[in-house]
Amino acid sequence: MPARIDRALLLNTLQTVPYYSEHWRDLPRELLFFDPWGIDWQRETIKGLQLRRGVWRLGEFAFPRTIYNRCFPEPRVVLAKLGERIGEENIFNQRTQFDKWEVYLLLKESPAGEYLPSTYLFSPAELSQLLAEHTTLIFKPRRGHGGAGVFRLELAGPETVLVTNQWYSFPLWGEALYLALVKAAAPQGVYLVQEYVHSLELDGFKFDVRIMLQKDKEGKWTVSGELSRVVRSESLLTNSYQAVVPVSEVVSGDTLDQLHNLSYRVAEVLDAGLGGLGELGVDFLLDREGRPWILEVNGKPDKGLFWRLGDSKMLRRIYLTPLQYQQHLLRSKTSAPGRFS
Q1: What 8-state DSSP symbol labels residue 36?
Q2: How many domains does the chain have?
Q3: What's the whole-model pTM score?
Q4: Mean pLDDT, consecutive 10-residue segments, the chain of 341 residues?
Q5: Residue 224 maps to which CATH number?
Q6: Residue 185 burial by CB count (10 A; 0-12/13-18/19+): exposed, middle or buried?
Q7: Is there a contact between 300 and 70 (Cβ–Cβ < 8 Å)?
């Protein structure tokens, strides 16, 4: 019978993870890394990489006891089948690609709802009315990632709009013309439209704030990391940032406390509504009056951004907290055990 490892990470592609290699003394006894193609469902085994005492070994293993999903998008069929074998409750981050509309609806009725920009499913018939009401709108794919497909529409005069994306900006005259372009660029049902929040600027730059939340060794949400992406004021998105800086450089301690509290609310609501979560990235923007707005929630926040801060303690929290949550799952299983428990 192949060896069974307590903690595993499911990746899009089987590979080593340098942080874990270099900090193996901080890790549990061993970890298993695998991808969906390494699973043999008939033999009920996994071909993957075992990390033990800083050494990687390719081998064949039994299904692990807990799984930390790091695939994007999540392989739902694979996760469901794994859940049947080890217990669905022993797998977390079962949703990594969020539907922004679903997230909005869940948060809208919560205490965090007042910090959401007004958001709508895009309908061409309502565009003129929304432009008259908000003047500036931003269009986002419901399942978009990394700023792809995002653009802004600004009412610049009677029958005139200014279209801006990540690379260029141009005017369009006449409702028929701009409506045709928007309908082609933002298919109905695929896009949502949101009131545009004019960002607070500091010395010609604007910024966002990302709060990383993860479940800890007690199974509770905790803030494990935070950063700010800084861009030039004319930039549409913070994805094309000029710098990544500590949050303390752009917001006060009181504002940061507020963002932490809002992040906890977001995590609790989405965990209850979506289920099976273990980490989130919540992106905030401050408007020109300093009021925070929730812009985005990420189901697979990019750990790579945090390397740019050079904060070893923060990196340690970000990489190790999910493994501590796995220990919590191992200690306190509250649901019916899976076949291999």
Answers
A1: G
A2: 3
A3: 0.94
A4: 95 97 94 98 97 97 98 98 97 97 97 97 95 96 92 91 92 92 94 96 95 98 98 90 96 98 98 96 97 97 95 98 97 56 44
A5: 3.30.470.20
A6: middle
A7: yes
